[in-house]
């Protein structure tokens, strides 16, 4: 007979004594259980004790989290969080440097636990730490030379404890003084400072900027881009990551009118070339967090284009009209201007109209009307002018080349530029906030100060080339744009390291090559429509689905490392989840860092029987996606979120590292529950495997026409004289 669901078998340790095996009744108050444990070891004052996990987390057991205790868990009897907080509060004020250092080290470790953090904060612990940072550093300034390692460690543990305590979201960031901000900023501004102090100081500044508008203004006054740049020129990738994170935070929270000014400062300080030299082209791999911060910087930089993208052209604005005149002048400069007399006005208008038609504008009389649609608005005109001025030969060649073709075969430069700009903005998601999970940065955009304009210049030449290869007419305009989009997207997926490499990739993706790729993909995914093939597909589909199901379950058995996302992304913890080989239990547990190899089975202490799972929900239906906060509103995070609901009110919440893992896990969990696998990945796998299986079975019928209907049964012969009688 199985044990009652409310009884959990655990081991409990106490220093200097043999561990106890005991059964915990989850219906009993936690205080009664602690009293029972204390009585077993003859310990008085049970209210001064608590239970905590004996693993590396050391988290306290509370009434809120006690349901997470599973059979076989090892617990430890220890001082209660209130007592521990009180003792540490006193110890960190000790006059002994060694005692103070040891207390701060313990505080940095314990502060990760929200239960302890709450008790320490209740004692006004945050204020004590900020005072120690503000005044304590001066107090020990004289000792710094003779006790430098001790001083550095002490400050490092103080800042670590502060970061961990603030990370729980119990205390508002708005409560901190200017003196504290100045002190933290001073650590960042020092040329020679301990790495751990610098790292935590940068983390604190980033959190201040992201969590408080008032603090953003104060931090922006204390920290300049010029003071942050030297930290990017070092060799420590973690410091570089934190530095770019601070720059991104300042960029993100800056008022709209200040962002362009900040971008100009970044350009003056050559931030792009420094990142390219010391980060992207450094002789080491870029980790996920650095890739994310580079992606955020890329998005924020491109978002500066949003204002021009959403600005309509004012046909009455002479300065804007002059840009169109400049485009005409550069293209047709060789043509003589008519004399400025009373009889030439009509002639001039006629010539301008003819030239604007050659330039490919839709509205030949007033081309300004072509730029009233947003997006791309004035951004398209900016790109055209940049191309005309910085790639003048290519611009003139394209315009004159097309103006000499028949009307129906000319590639309209104006219309093409407007649509291409709009398409590039869609590809690069200009105007959208950066995702919390994306790492998709492109090195080539860090190789030029005007990378978007150069990107456009390459793509407009590609469009003209593709138009000629397709022998397109004006009716084929949308088809050409679709091909160009495919060419650009395919080239971008290879992550070219420079714009020249991107151009080279596009050279290899000619229209003929795109047709070959499409034909190959069409053959690989061909949906044979004849009745015999459809019947064959129907017959073998269950077998293929079973194969996909087994692959999904095998991947769940291997397991996946998930992030625990919070407001300060780089401090996220990891956790791992996998399915037992018999497909009956999900094992999961926290990890200190992302695993490099196989995760040991005994490190995953928590278990969830598959039989207890009630449902799997995704996206907005997930409990952790219904909470308030900017992160929860992020579209890409929503698309990667899923939750397992079990028991009455319990859930296990996931945010997949990418779309592929999301599909694997939702498919696998649905398969365990006997439900259909509905993901895009399953549909693609099913199409691919069905197509391959059918082609294999039809190899012997190559070049043989398969009829839509079976051949008719012939009439019976008039006699059977042809039958040989063996008798």
UniProtKB/TrEMBL annotation:
<dbReference type="InterPro" id="IPR006816">
    <property type="entry name" value="ELMO_dom"/>
</dbReference>
<feature type="domain" description="ELMO">
    <location>
        <begin position="319"/>
        <end position="492"/>
    </location>
</feature>
<dbReference type="Pfam" id="PF11841">
    <property type="entry name" value="ELMO_ARM"/>
</dbReference>
<dbReference type="InterPro" id="IPR001849">
    <property type="entry name" value="PH_domain"/>
</dbReference>
<dbReference type="InterPro" id="IPR050868">
    <property type="entry name" value="ELMO_domain-containing"/>
</dbReference>
<keyword id="KW-0581">Phagocytosis</keyword>
<dbReference type="InterPro" id="IPR016024">
    <property type="entry name" value="ARM-type_fold"/>
</dbReference>
<comment type="function">
    <text>Involved in cytoskeletal rearrangements required for phagocytosis of apoptotic cells and cell motility. Acts in association with DOCK1 and CRK. Was initially proposed to be required in complex with DOCK1 to activate Rac Rho small GTPases. May enhance the guanine nucleotide exchange factor (GEF) activity of DOCK1.</text>
</comment>
<dbReference type="InterPro" id="IPR024574">
    <property type="entry name" value="ELMO_ARM"/>
</dbReference>
<protein>
    <submittedName>
        <fullName>Engulfment and cell motility protein 1 isoform X2</fullName>
    </submittedName>
</protein>
<dbReference type="Pfam" id="PF16457">
    <property type="entry name" value="PH_12"/>
</dbReference>
<dbReference type="Pfam" id="PF04727">
    <property type="entry name" value="ELMO_CED12"/>
</dbReference>
<keyword id="KW-0729">SH3-binding</keyword>
<dbReference type="InterPro" id="IPR011993">
    <property type="entry name" value="PH-like_dom_sf"/>
</dbReference>
<keyword id="KW-0053">Apoptosis</keyword>
<dbReference type="InterPro" id="IPR011989">
    <property type="entry name" value="ARM-like"/>
</dbReference>
């Amino acid at each position: 007979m199985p044990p009652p669901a409310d009884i959990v078998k655990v081991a409990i340790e106490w220093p200097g004594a043999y561990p106890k095996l005991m059964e915990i009744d989850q219906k009993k108050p936690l205080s009664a259980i602690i009293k029972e444990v204390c009585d077993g070891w003859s310990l008085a004052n049970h209210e001064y004790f608590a239970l905590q996990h004996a693993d590396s987390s050391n988290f306290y057991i509370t009434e809120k989290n006690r349901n997470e205790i599973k059979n076989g868990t090892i617990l430890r009897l220890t001082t209660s969080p209130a007592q521990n907080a009180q003792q540490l509060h006193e110890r960190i004020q000790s006059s002994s440097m060694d005692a103070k250092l040891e207390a701060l080290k313990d505080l940095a470790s314990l502060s990760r636990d929200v239960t302890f953090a709450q008790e320490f904060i209740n004692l006004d612990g945050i204020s004590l730490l900020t005072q120690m940072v503000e005044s304590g550093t001066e107090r020990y300034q004289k000792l710094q030379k003779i006790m430098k390692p001790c001083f550095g460690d002490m400050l490092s543990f103080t800042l670590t404890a502060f970061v961990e305590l603030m990370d729980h979201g119990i205390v508002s960031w708005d409560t901190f003084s200017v003196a504290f901000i100045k002190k933290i900023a001073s650590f960042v501004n020092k040329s020679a400072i301990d790495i751990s102090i610098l790292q935590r100081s940068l983390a604190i500044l980033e959190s201040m900027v992201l969590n408080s508008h008032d603090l953003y203004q104060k931090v922006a006054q204390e920290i300049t881009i010029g003071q942050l740049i030297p930290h990017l020129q070092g060799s420590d990738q973690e410091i570089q990551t934190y530095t770019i994170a601070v720059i991104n935070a300042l960029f993100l929270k800056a008022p709209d009118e200040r962002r362009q000014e900040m971008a100009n400062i970044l350009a003056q300080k050559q931030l792009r070339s420094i990142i390219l030299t010391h980060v992207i082209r450094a002789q080491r791999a870029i980790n996920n967090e650095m890739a994310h911060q580079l992606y955020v910087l890329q998005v924020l930089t491109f978002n500066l284009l949003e204002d021009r993208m959403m600005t309509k052209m004012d046909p009455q604005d002479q300065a804007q009209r002059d840009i169109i005149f400049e485009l005409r002048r550069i293209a047709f400069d060789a043509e003589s201007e008519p004399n400025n007399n009373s009889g030439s006005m009509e002639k001039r208008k006629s010539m301008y109209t003819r030239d604007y038609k050659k330039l490919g504008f839709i509205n030949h009389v007033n081309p300004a009307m072509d730029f009233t649609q947003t997006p791309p608005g004035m951004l398209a005109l900016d790109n055209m002018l940049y191309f005309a001025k910085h790639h003048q030969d290519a611009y003139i060649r394209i315009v004159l080349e097309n103006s000499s073709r028949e009307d129906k075969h000319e590639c309209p430069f104006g219309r093409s530029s407007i649509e291409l700009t709009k398409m590039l903005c869609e590809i690069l998601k200009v105007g959208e906030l950066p995702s919390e999970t994306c790492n998709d940065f492109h090195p080539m955009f860090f190789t030029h100060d005007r990378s978007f304009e150069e990107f456009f210049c390459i793509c407009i030449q590609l469009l003209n080339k593709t138009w000629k290869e397709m022998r397109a007419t004006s009716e084929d305009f949308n088809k050409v744009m679709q091909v160009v989009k495919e060419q650009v997207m395919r080239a971008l997926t290879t992550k070219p390291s420079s714009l020249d490499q991107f151009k080279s990739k596009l050279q290899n993706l000619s229209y003929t090559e795109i047709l070959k790729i499409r034909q190959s993909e069409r053959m690989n995914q061909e949906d044979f429509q004849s009745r015999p093939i459809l019947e064959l597909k129907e017959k073998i589909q269950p077998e293929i689905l079973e194969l996909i199901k087994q692959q999904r379950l095998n991947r769940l058995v291997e397991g996946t490392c998930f992030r625990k996302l919070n407001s300060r992304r780089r401090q996220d913890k990891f956790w791992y989840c996998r399915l037992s080989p018999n497909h009956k239990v999900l094992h999961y547990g926290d990890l200190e860092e992302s695993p490099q190899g196989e995760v040991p089975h005994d490190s995953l202490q928590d278990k969830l029987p598959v039989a207890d799972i009630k449902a799997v929900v995704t996206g907005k239906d997930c409990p952790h996606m219904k909470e308030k906060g900017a992160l929860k509103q992020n579209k890409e995070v929503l698309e990667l979120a899923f939750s397992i609901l079990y028991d009455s009110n319990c859930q296990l919440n996931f945010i997949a590292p990418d779309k592929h893992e999301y599909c694997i896990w939702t498919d696998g969990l649905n398969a365990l529950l006997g439900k259909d696998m509905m993901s895009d990945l399953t549909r693609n796998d099913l199409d691919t495997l069905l197509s391959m299986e059918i082609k294999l079975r039809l190899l012997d019928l190559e070049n043989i026409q398969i009829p839509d209907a079976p051949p008719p049964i012939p009439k019976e012969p008039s006699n059977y004289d042809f039958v040989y009688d063996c008798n």
